[in-house]
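User: Sequence in, structure out. Go.
Assistant: Echoing your sequence, followed by the structure tokens.
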Amino acid sequence: MSGSGKAGLINRRALLGSTLAGINLAALGLPTIARAELGEKPAKLVVLGDNASWKGTILQDAIPAFKNDTGIDVEYVQLPMEALVVRSRAEMSGQGPTSFDIVQMGSSMVGWMHAYVEDHNRLLASAAGKYASDFDMDDFPPRTIDAVSVDGKLCGIPYRATVYIFHYQKELLEAAGFSSPPSTFAEFQAAAAALTSTGAPLRYGVGTCGRQGPAISNHFCPFLLSSGGSFYDLKTRKITIDTEESIGALEYYGNLMTKHRVIPPEAVTWEWDEIIANGQNDRYAMAVTLNASGTLLNKSKASKTAGRWGWTVVPGAQKAEQSKSPFFVWSFAVPSASQNKGWAFEFIQHVTSREWARRSMEKGNASARLSVLTDPEIVEAYGWTAAAAAQMKTAQPNPNDANWGSLELDLRAGISSTLQGQTTARDALQTVADSWRRKFNRLRP
């Protein structure tokens, strides 16, 4: 449904959320309100977000275009992930207005943040501005909308949707004797060993993020999920991070580093930027990492390996059909305590519109819009989108749980200790599980 006017703004999922919220649905047929009704125009809007590199189009192109259209300056405050969570939680749960008008919200943050943001169904119903009349919420896949919704409340508008896929340098893999990319863990390990041998001493078989920071658990998750492992049941809180499947996944993953030595030793210091930079500098031949990294590896002028990469789904433990990936959505949201809700939402619609979603692919984004991901020109230009679409079919989100942030810190420590050879996978995950049980016990009434 692309339509125009309010009928084109509210889709079936939004109507459900609006019904739950008690909105007068008859009002949805009215024309889009004028900008003058958004309230006094602010001189500046402030966005609070993380410091990852995928926002190049927003910072360099979309923000200047928004100022040109509205006359409003936009300041994008970029913080490390932990600092983003601490500051946004502190301000949004406080008594006064927030110092920021828009907040960048990861799907794993929705579990606690949903109580402190506007229902974006309501904002859609009264939107104004250049993109409001043809915004097309149906262009976002249902699971993407679900990832940013709680009990019918739409907590933000998606901008970036990522899965982990298998990136590999095609010619190197063929030269090492592999006619097709590995589809199982055993094949992946064999290819990693061969590629490490042929690339020595400068190139290793596999790159990953091993620093005990935000990226470490996400890079382990494809191996966990593809082994049949999991975290815990969100409803019953039955812990599964210490099952044999989960332990086997971490043992396999840790052995790539400590036993088989197919991962660069300095990968224990790598985060998001480092895995991209080292792939661009030919430090590894394969990686299971974010889909959008393919753009920066294969098309960036800074990449010495540009044009060499291919993509497919993550290997499965024993068979290809076991392939799974974590699924993440980044959205932009208006805090309930924002002093400029109408104008803040106009900015959100600006950066998440079809126009800017398509342009964002140029600088490393993975658009959340179906029309972008399935555009034949995009598929041809970027290459990785087909693998991402295939991986999306079996992708699983991290727990949409207010406690996930604290629980993940334990998991990061367990993965890190295994990658550095300090503990076995079994001991590491049993320690994680014990900590989770204590935390869950404190949460019980």
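User: And one key feature?
Assistant: The two ends are 45 Å apart (CA to CA).
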